[in-house]
Amino acid sequence: MGRAATAAPAGFWHRAAAWSIDAACIAPVAMLLAWRWLQPASVPFCEATEALLRLAGELAARAIVDGTPLHGLAIALMHDPRITDATATLQLATWRWLLPASFAFGLVGAAWHVAGERSRWQGSPGKRLLGLRVTSRDGATPSLARSAWRHLAGTASWATLNLGHVMAAAGPRHLALHDRISATRVVDDAGPEARLPGWARAWLTLVVVAGVAVTAWLVQRAAALMEAGLLAALY
């Protein structure tokens, strides 16, 4: 029996580890490619974020001093025209920063993944490290058009707030949304009982810890800006 006949569907965590490795390689290249647009867009984005958080803290302090009950505080803030204007400014600044970053990441990612799937590895370098391959439903190497369509279909998995990716956790076929759309699958030649290597578990742990640390820093920074606005209003 050949590889196509014996290969088992790749598990969710194997795929997650492979994708995160690829993303860590793609992101720096994408940022360099988009830096010409990201650098000037980052300044208004940071300023708009800071202005909104400070304003929210200031208005919250004034509402409390005026006796607004806590349960009505959020409603009062949402209907304040100054908050509405600041939010609109932040949304525009966010899109101006996000669009070039997303386009560059998608462009570099397309070259990275499509080239990998069309190679003898049948997968990106991240998949190669985990022993995974991308195949068509019949086990053959995907055509150039199918690989490109698979990468484009990944947009649908992201657009569903990653539910399309989580679908890969469901057995027995472990197909993500973009696998279903493009009629492809990710297989693991090591078999269905293959365990995630220790180094890959350590890598995923590092990714989670880094994500939690960045989130905690952002929350702390947001709280500090709101506190500064609150104190400015009170004193």
UniProtKB/TrEMBL annotation:
Where does it live in the cell?
Cell membrane
User: What's the short name of a Pfam family annotated to this entry?
Assistant: RDD
**Does the record's keyword annotation contain Membrane?**
yes
| Tree of life domain | Bacteria
**Membrane-crossing residue ranges in chain numbering:** 12-35, 97-115, 202-220
Q: What is its main location?
A: membrane
Question: InterPro entries annotated for this entry?
Answer: Pra-immunoreactive, RDD
Using the record for this protein, list the coiled-coil segments as residue ranges, or answer none.
none
What keywords are assigned to this protein? Cell membrane, Membrane, Transmembrane, Transmembrane helix
Membrane topology term reads: Multi-pass membrane protein
Q: Which residues form the RDD domain?
A: 9-182
Write the protein's name.
RDD domain-containing protein
Tell me the lineage of the source organism: Bacteria, Pseudomonadati, Pseudomonadota, Gammaproteobacteria, Lysobacterales
